[in-house]
TrEMBL record:
<dbReference type="Pfam" id="PF00528">
    <property type="entry name" value="BPD_transp_1"/>
</dbReference>
<feature type="transmembrane region" description="Helical">
    <location>
        <begin position="147"/>
        <end position="169"/>
    </location>
</feature>
<dbReference type="InterPro" id="IPR051204">
    <property type="entry name" value="ABC_transp_perm/SBD"/>
</dbReference>
<dbReference type="InterPro" id="IPR035906">
    <property type="entry name" value="MetI-like_sf"/>
</dbReference>
<comment type="similarity">
    <text>Belongs to the binding-protein-dependent transport system permease family.</text>
</comment>
<feature type="domain" description="ABC transmembrane type-1">
    <location>
        <begin position="27"/>
        <end position="208"/>
    </location>
</feature>
<feature type="transmembrane region" description="Helical">
    <location>
        <begin position="93"/>
        <end position="114"/>
    </location>
</feature>
<keyword id="KW-0813">Transport</keyword>
<feature type="transmembrane region" description="Helical">
    <location>
        <begin position="189"/>
        <end position="211"/>
    </location>
</feature>
<keyword id="KW-0812">Transmembrane</keyword>
<dbReference type="InterPro" id="IPR000515">
    <property type="entry name" value="MetI-like"/>
</dbReference>
<protein>
    <submittedName>
        <fullName>Osmoprotectant transport system permease protein</fullName>
    </submittedName>
</protein>
<feature type="transmembrane region" description="Helical">
    <location>
        <begin position="31"/>
        <end position="51"/>
    </location>
</feature>
<feature type="transmembrane region" description="Helical">
    <location>
        <begin position="63"/>
        <end position="87"/>
    </location>
</feature>
<keyword id="KW-1133">Transmembrane helix</keyword>
<feature type="region of interest" description="Disordered">
    <location>
        <begin position="221"/>
        <end position="241"/>
    </location>
</feature>
<feature type="compositionally biased region" description="Basic residues">
    <location>
        <begin position="232"/>
        <end position="241"/>
    </location>
</feature>
Amino acid sequence: MNLFVEAIRWLFAPERMQGQYALPLLLGQHLLYTVASVAVAALIAVPLGWIIGHTGRGREIAVAVSGAARAIPSFGLLVLLVLLLGVLRTPEAALITFVLLAIPSLLAGAYTGIEAIDRRVIDAARAMGMTSWQVFRKVELPLGLPLLIGGLRAAVLQVIATVTIAAYVNLGGLGWPIIQGIPLRRFDQVLAGAILVAVLALLADLLLAIAQRAAVPAGIRAAGGGSSPSRSSRKARAAAA
């Protein structure tokens, strides 16, 4: 309990708002790496996931690649890329690491969102004379959006947690109090850094959970689909997470 109180005191000390390692600056760095990494990963993974879900082709390859990407240790990859690219390209090495971390969840969220749609709905849309593009834009995209946001939610949380290692290669972020505090045995500082990362992750998760719920079409919510998802939808959410 005393350690927790000391961590809170460390957080609210006046010197935390000043200097090169001021908490607002570290928070800004953490958010910058998170947003940039997830945005780049989304540009790569979401269109690919939509194509896989719409055509039904390449799912096995996507699952294999996603599984391999999840198995890569982020810290080891970051250090390896820094060594390969050089210390002057450390930001690029960090960005590549975080992008690779975010891709699997976004890819899974994109294609499972479409796969989870009842085929009878798509068949009915085609029977009405819709083209393949219209089926995707008017049926698959809105119905698959909640699971895509679920994949985004998982990706953002993973990246927020992992960006803490950026401080190890002197890139700042909220991991700096943790990385610096461990060798100094400043456990109040370490705990304070962990609290900051946890609070940021919880806030991001809350906002994305609200967005995910809002993305469920009104007709499905009215029918109870938002609170009682089908078996296929539950499987898709598990894949996206």
